[in-house]
Amino acid sequence: MDEEEKVYHERFMREAINMAELALASDETPVGCVFVKDGEIIGRAMNETNRTLNGTRHCEFIALSQILSTHPISILRETDLYVTVEPCVMCASALRQYGIRAVYFGCWNDRFGGTGGVLNIHSDPSVDKPYPVYGGIFREEAIMLLRKFYVQENEKAPKPTQKKTRELKTDILPLDIHSPKS
Amino acid sequence: MVTPEAAEEAVSCSIERLGNVPRPGRLVALKTKDEVRAALETFEAYIVGVSAKFAGAILNVIRESLPDLKTAEFQHLRRVVSFEYLPQHLQTRFGIIRYPESDIRDETDGFTALTRAEIRYLLVSPITAISQSGLIEVLAKKPPFLDASALPAVFTIPVPALAPTSAEQAAQWTRDFWPISYKNTNPYGPHPSLVARNTADIEEGAGTYLALAEAAGEQISELSLGEKVGCVIVDKTGGDEQIIAVTGDCRWQSRNGGPMKKEEPGNVMAHAVQRGIAMVAKKRLRVAGTNPESISSSKVFCDSPLTDHEKHFYSLDNIPPNGYLCSELDIYITHEPCVMCSMAILHSRFRRCVFSRRMPLTGGMTAGVGSVQGDGSTAVVRNVSGLGHGIFWRPSELNWKFLAWEWIDTDRLDTYLEVKDTLQA
């Protein structure tokens, strides 16, 4: 990725990080995203699983619902996604079914990532066209946002575990540790 | 708030009134990804035939010579087996060999005929642990093979690489490969007794819920708003059963509410499972005293009830307000859910999942092994390969797991619930 391209992608990932920060301030899992067509942001959202009591209301779904309320579905074939954390298996499949052009993300998700972190839903055999993914843009910031969230109490979860003794760790392992599993 | 008794009556009455006829059939638990792998993976192993009285000494010399051999990795394979316990094809293969006996030397060739009862077959190691000539050298260190006066008979056979997951599988492998021990556990999936208990718990109602799911899909399809795919979400934790949500696929509904032009893929987020999960969430908000419509939600999610079935079950306040997502709930679906919906079920912490028609090209639940079709007496294994994701049970990779079954309709025709092969259900 040359310098000009890097600046282009970082501009949109910065917008996604802003949405993740908003999520953190709203007691939602700090993941944010923007969808971009022709250099314009056509949708932006943060996770809303806690507020909606719906575990599928990831930021990608929220932003897609905004876009599709004013645009035809076919616009997604010319649209790229910038998301702070790798799309989960569910979102990775939704994006592929919708025909997304490309996905750029911050950090990998080794618990349920769908574009390399755990599974490879973007490129596995499927009836739908595969899409390219690019990870690692502002990776450290994306990880720090998640860590800040996990030292807070998640009151919506059953049998809340005591997290007061948790420390906010600030060391971030080199990239190869968090690289895709396969 | 409807009392549980009244709600139950309303549910059962309404199912009858709606003309719901339960599907006849039975449940078949899905194989997990690891079970599929365990059922297919084999390695080649050395077998040596020897008189029973030398078996221990031979195993000792092998242990000394192969200190790195991890016998714990093939604990499921019996180490010492007598002739009568060999599978038939190995009895045939090994039976013609004569075995050396050092203290009763035959004058001519050093061999004497052992009776079959005296022979033991030792599983030495995977062939990757030592070369065959190396093994023969090792064996020659001890009687009866001392000084290579009598060469050991070494065979190579395939054996299952991983432990069996049920007594039936152990028995099958014992017939097909080599005697297997089964420790009544299943390291690759849910314990057989857990599956049996849950199958017994849900099998009576499953045909009813699948028929209702089918009707839900048909109702929306008749409006040209979706594919004939439906789902039913049930709470069976109490003594009574509560139908929490009934939804059909709504991918062809346009922004203005009417049908849209059917250009693939349609509105992916309006699959029946997505709508069902959304309606559970809205009911939880409602019983907790929050107006679900006050939580901004886009019409694109199609999460309001459309048909009579959907409206009826959505209107019942029969869900506890303090539940977490869809934990403790069961979901019944007409078709194997796509990868997106399979993962949505996992994210929502469902307890159990049953689907009717497999979707080999798009389904996310099955782990990609042949399914059993037909009733018990005429069962034939039809190899339907799938994508192999097996999303319901991958506990080492995904952060939730649940039990999943395929429903085998007793009088199913191949056309039952037929949809386009490439449909994402």
From TrEMBL, chain A:
Q: Which residues form the CMP/dCMP-type deaminase domain?
A: 7-126
List its EC numbers: 3.5.4.33
Spell out the InterPro entries in the cross-references: CMP_dCMP_dom (IPR002125), Cytidine_deaminase-like (IPR016193)
Could you give one GO CC term from the UniProt record? nucleus
Domain of life (superkingdom): Eukaryota
> Does Ribosomal protein appear among the keywords?
no
What GO molecular function annotation could you give as one example from this UniProt entry? metal ion binding
Write down the Gene3D superfamilies for this protein, in alphabetical order.
Cytidine Deaminase, domain 2
Which parts of the sequence are annotated with region: Disordered?
A: 155-182
Q: State the UniProt keywords alphabetically.
A: Hydrolase, Metal-binding, tRNA processing, Zinc
Q: Does the keyword tRNA processing apply?
A: yes
One Gene Ontology term from the biological process aspect of the record: tRNA wobble adenosine to inosine editing
Bias category Basic and acidic residues: which stretches? 155-170
Which cofactor does the UniProt annotation name?
Zn(2+)
Catalytic activity annotation: adenosine(34) in tRNA + H2O + H(+) = inosine(34) in tRNA + NH4(+)
For this UniProt entry, which segments traverse the membrane?
Answer: none
Q: What class of enzyme is it?
A: hydrolase
- Entry similarity comment: Belongs to the cytidine and deoxycytidylate deaminase family. ADAT2 subfamily.
Name of this chain's protein: tRNA(adenine(34)) deaminase
Q: Which organism is it from?
A: Zopfia rhizophila CBS 207.26
Automatic annotation (TrEMBL), chain B:
Sorted alphabetically, which Pfam families does this protein's record hold? Answer: dCMP_cyt_deam_1
Alphabetized, the UniProt keywords read: tRNA processing
Q: GO annotations under biological process?
A: tRNA processing
Cellular compartments per GO CC? cytoplasm; nucleus
What CDD domains does the entry give? nucleoside_deaminase
GO MF, one annotated term: tRNA-specific adenosine-34 deaminase activity
CMP/dCMP-type deaminase domain spans which residues? Answer: 200-368
User: What InterPro entries does the record tag this protein with?
Assistant: CMP_dCMP_dom, Cytidine_deaminase-like
- Family of this protein: Belongs to the cytidine and deoxycytidylate deaminase family. ADAT3 subfamily.
Q: What is this protein called?
A: Cytidine deaminase-like protein
Species per Swiss-Prot/TrEMBL record? Zopfia rhizophila CBS 207.26
Taxonomic lineage of this organism? Eukaryota, Fungi, Dikarya, Ascomycota, Pezizomycotina
